[in-house]
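Journal club prep — side note

Before the paper discussion, L.F. wants everyone to see what a predicted structure for a comparable chain looks like in token form. Sequence:
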Amino acid sequence: MEDENQGEIGSIFDLKLDDDDLLALIKKPLTESETYWESEVGLKQIREDNMNLWLPNHWKNKDVYDYQEENLYQDPRIFISVETITSIVNSRIPNVDVMPGQDTVVSEQAAKDLSKTLFAHADKFRTLDLFRIAARNLLLKRIGYLKLRWDPLAGKNGEIVPDSIPPEDIVVDRDARYGDNPRFIAHKVRNKTLEELIAMFPESKQKILEMAGIGRFDKKGNRVAYKSQLAQKKDIWEVWFHYYEDGYQSAVAWVDVSYQYVIGKIRNPNWNYEDEEGFTGNFLDQPIPPIFPINYLNDGTSYIDLTSMVEQAAPLQRILDRRGFQIMENADMAGSGLVFNTQMIDKADVAKLVGSPDERIGVKGSVRDAVARIAPPPLPSYVIEDKLDARNEIDNVFATQEVTRGERSGNKTLGQDQMQREQNYTRLDDISRAMERVATFYNRYLVQMMKVHYTEEHYFKAVGEDGKFDYLVMKQDSIEDGIDIKVGVGSMLPINKQRQADAVESLVQMGLIDPLSVYEVLAGGNLASPQKLLERYLLFKTDPIAFMGKVKEDEFSREAFMDIQILNRGEMPRPRDEIAPEYLGFMNQYMLGGDFEKQPDLVKQLYVEWMKVSSAQAQKQLQALMTQAPTEEDMQISNQKALEQAQLENEMMGSSAGTVGKTEDKAQGLADKVDTQNQKSAQKLV
């Protein structure tokens, strides 16, 4: 854009503008950018050509004879290479590492639960498939896009839904560069029925009906539509933008594609604003659009890549197809042609011949003089060599030789095949890192949206380390401040099972691995991370009993952990039917820690009341156990459980007596203050 227009464009999306002014200011930069990308850069034609090479349309718009159109040779080399890369760099759901905000047991467990929740969310919405679509678009259309949106109708309490957006439906500011937060990015939302649009924007119902040309009115002058008319489909622009008014501001507007109607305009809905009730903080540093680009071949000067692998391989693919076509035509003529002497064989008889081996025909004179076979010209060797060379060069461009595609080369040893695979994976490292970058960005934004939209509890299931299901409860308050998120390097690439087996064998010989990790790999699982392997090994060597899980079960109780999160929100948990010894032990451990001391006095009072309820429940369980008439074996088991529970209760009451006493004193002081304040208020009313 020209410098003289910067002032005007900088205030394009002021939400205080009237709709007409907003439309006028949106239209110019959006249409200019759309023209720039489609015409000046030529993205539309490039994407069409690349798609033809991926689809079986290699000869589309190419000059061929009519008789050749039905038998054109097409070698799907680009298709194979694109799909090979797509599957390699998106082999697994990314492993999201969540670093806790504090060095406490509860904080570490909350970080683990959030990591499991992100994995469960990705599994629920088949996010890996969307990543593969985005990677395919990156290779074919120079860029891929992922998007997150809040759907209030998904699930009981609404849900965050991921989408993969076709790049042709996105228009971004022409001046944006790689890694920028562009001034605007517009998504063309296609084929929305009027009914859907009215559900999305109920306050704009009259505008939507007017936009659709509905001219029927009720007695009050409001536009009304028949049910059949509501099935009409419309495209709209969803324009995300930022502007500067009292600092950085982010917003979104929905307008029709003809730029005549503003259906909606609001501040970025994926941000917790301090002026709103129930402000709970944010995970990101600033509000940004929920659209995530994937770049690969970029020098930093453009928001969209400057080229693609398919474009680099396109000339080679055309050579490959032409050489293959030449070989095919030559093969079709391998049967040679026949020439007849019409003085010896009548033309009518020649016309009846179809080439069947049981055909008979008689001639007068020498048979050799009656019929002659013309051999086809030999095919030059360089035609076949050129075809093979083009095919190999395409594999080199994409780094997808036979072993990378899962095939075995015919003339190489196993060691050479492994070296070739490693070389190819090194070439694919850049695009793999591009997928990991967008996966990190995607999951960070997902956490941000959880902090905004998870005002009610959302439930997920995940497989725990013990092989059992963990039932996870996620709410905006469960995501503590100070956490950080990163996708593990190489966590989306396929696992080399043979290399893992070799590594395990080496570690076993050196005595540097625990039995559980060995059994996991032998059972077909994946080798744990280096940090986890070290933790397991040290625990196995220093405390085998703890390694077997007994101490861990005694130290952690998921039920207590969930109730701690509820209590920290200032709410009272639901009474539990059974209080296990691990529950009381974990609660006791938490109430003696520094995190409990940081809680407000009213929250501490809730803990005191809750522990009274839990202790009473535990006492009832003990009494019920004592009144039963068990067998001798049951009595021994019951006595052991009673002793363990009594010991835990005594330890809890003894070690936390000071904490509870101080908390009760503070709670009593707060109660006295409340009574005094109520008396003063009553006197004022009198």
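L.F.'s comment for the group: Confidence is low (pLDDT under 50) at residues 1-11, 550-554, 677-686. Keep this in mind when we get to the figures.
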